[in-house]
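Dear H.,

Thanks for agreeing to be a second pair of eyes. The structure we're designing against is below in token form, covering all 496 positions.
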């Protein structure tokens, strides 16, 4: 009642679009449904700017398409896997680790670029212990070597790309000797690893990785990865990047959502113009009053993310929180943000609840069910229950017409030719692809979703947005005398 009352008050005084949702994980679907029914489209995942955003924008401005999650990398059939700024042995992507292990068994070359002698480095033919913060220099030098030695896929580049001559001229100064002075990588090793990529082409993956937000020029760094991918002819080719497909899962019928009075990008107008998702720190900044503007957001619902750790400027985040009329935090455990909340709603853990059907882009469409193993403990509740109850208090039950999440899931699954009962037994169900287009066919005239319809080595979108249309090297701040740069991996979850 308290939350609903405050949300109604915000809607009357400032408009429903003044409510925002920050979410990470499966709960976002339920609270996103609630926000859209309320009249707001300001639904953001902080992980976009923190983790995937530069990668997606870098590839979107090159190929007109994104990497998706799970990533569309064809590890099982690759002949050369380049890990630069990523580590498949220290993450939760079990399928990718298994495929990497299989690729190693089949003789694939692994090139690991990492200051640490990591687990992946121990499995690699080449370990390049690069100086931290200099990855862009190595990428530009690899591009230089491929073009200078004519080791790129000439037919693929001629058929599918635009901007090659501008790129060729741009990378002339970025020799292996130039890169050596920055990266400390031996010029001969730079040439030799570029040759390995050429020899394996097009079955090469320069892995774009995750958690790619590092120094502020990250989109340009991932643009360089995308350009390497294009030069090697790997996009849309076996052993490189496949064309993923997703199952068309029906949505439970609900009324059309009201049209918001303001789109989120209008709240931070002029910023993040190339972003393909709502940018969480843009919403945070737009919440802070400035001059006559009393702030464009008055209420936040935060689910499954700790904004004081996930957004880049804690002082700004606190300033935004102080300007709110309502802060609701929904989480499985206490976090720093709960200390600032007006209301804390305890969510049960993933072992105690149903989640929305997992329906991801992959080689083969599939649906996966997450179901409870035990009953929720204490007074914790599933996100699906919390969102439906709050919708009832707000008079929005029409957008939550199911009795409970089990009824909704069963309806969706029966539309897919299965059922909740069957999925509880099998867990995952695969479906055939609708089209036989996992890879491009030889010589196929592909139209890409870019301004030119081609792979843009020279990006017209980047140029139009006021950024360099070709990646440039930026020297980053050096640690003071007697200090070192902090680098880190993740807790190892898998072994080889």
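And this is the sequence the design step returned. I haven't edited it by hand at all.
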């Amino acid at each position: 009642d308290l939350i609903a009352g405050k949300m109604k008050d915000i809607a009357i005084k400032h408009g429903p679009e003044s409510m925002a949702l920050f979410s990470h994980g499966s709960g976002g679907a339920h609270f996103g449904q609630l926000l859209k029914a309320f009249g707001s489209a300001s639904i953001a995942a902080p992980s976009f700017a923190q983790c995937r955003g530069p990668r997606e924008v870098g590839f979107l401005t090159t190929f007109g398409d994104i990497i998706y999650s799970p990533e569309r990398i064809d590890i099982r059939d690759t002949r050369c896997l380049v890990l630069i700024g990523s580590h498949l042995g220290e993450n939760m992507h079990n399928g990718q680790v298994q495929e990497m292990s299989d690729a190693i068994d089949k003789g694939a070359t692994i090139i690991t670029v990492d200051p640490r002698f990591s687990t992946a480095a121990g499995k690699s033919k080449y370990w390049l212990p690069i100086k931290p913060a200099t990855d862009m220099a190595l990428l530009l030098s690899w591009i230089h070597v491929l073009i200078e030695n004519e080791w790129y896929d000439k037919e693929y580049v001629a058929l599918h790309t635009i901007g090659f001559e501008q790129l060729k001229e741009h990378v002339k100064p970025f020799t292996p000797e130039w890169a050596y002075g920055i990266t400390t990588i031996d010029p001969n090793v730079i040439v030799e690893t570029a040759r390995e990529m050429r020899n394996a082409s097009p079955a090469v993956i320069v892995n774009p990785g995750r958690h790619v937000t590092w120094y502020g020029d990250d989109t340009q760094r991932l643009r360089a990865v995308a350009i390497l991918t294009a030069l090697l002819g790997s996009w849309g080719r076996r052993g490189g990047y496949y064309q993923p497909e997703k199952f068309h899962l029906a949505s439970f019928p609900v009324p059309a959502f009201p049209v918001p009075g303001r789109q989120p990008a209008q709240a931070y107008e002029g910023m993040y113009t190339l972003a393909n998702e709502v940018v969480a720190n843009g919403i945070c900044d737009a919440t802070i009053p400035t001059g006559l503007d009393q702030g464009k957001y008055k209420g936040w619902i935060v689910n499954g993310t700790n904004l004081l750790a996930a957004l880049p400027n804690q002082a700004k985040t606190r300033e935004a929180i102080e300007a709110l009329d309502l802060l609701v935090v929904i989480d499985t455990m206490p976090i720093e943000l709960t200390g600032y909340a007006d209301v804390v709603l305890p969510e049960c853990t993933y072992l105690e609840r149903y989640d929305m059907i997992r329906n991801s882009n992959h080689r083969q469409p599939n649906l996966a069910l997450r179901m409870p193993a035990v009953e929720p403990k204490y007074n914790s509740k599933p996100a699906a229950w919390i969102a439906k109850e709050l919708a009832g208090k707000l008079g929005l039950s029409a957008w939550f017409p199911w009795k409970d999440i089990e009824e909704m899931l069963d309806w969706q699954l029966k539309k897919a030719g299965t059922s909740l009962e069957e999925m509880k037994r099998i867990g995952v169900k695969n479906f055939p692809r609708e089209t036989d287009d996992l890879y491009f066919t030889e010589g196929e005239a592909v139209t890409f979703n870019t301004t030119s319809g081609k792979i843009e080595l020279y990006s017209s979108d980047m140029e139009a947005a006021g950024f360099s249309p070709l990646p440039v090297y930026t020297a980053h701040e050096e640690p003071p005398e007697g200090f070192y740069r902090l680098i880190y991996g993740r807790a190892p979850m898998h072994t080889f």
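Two observations from my side: Residues 307 and 367 are 31 Å apart (CA to CA). The chain has two domains: 2-51+264-430, 70-244.

Warmly,
E.
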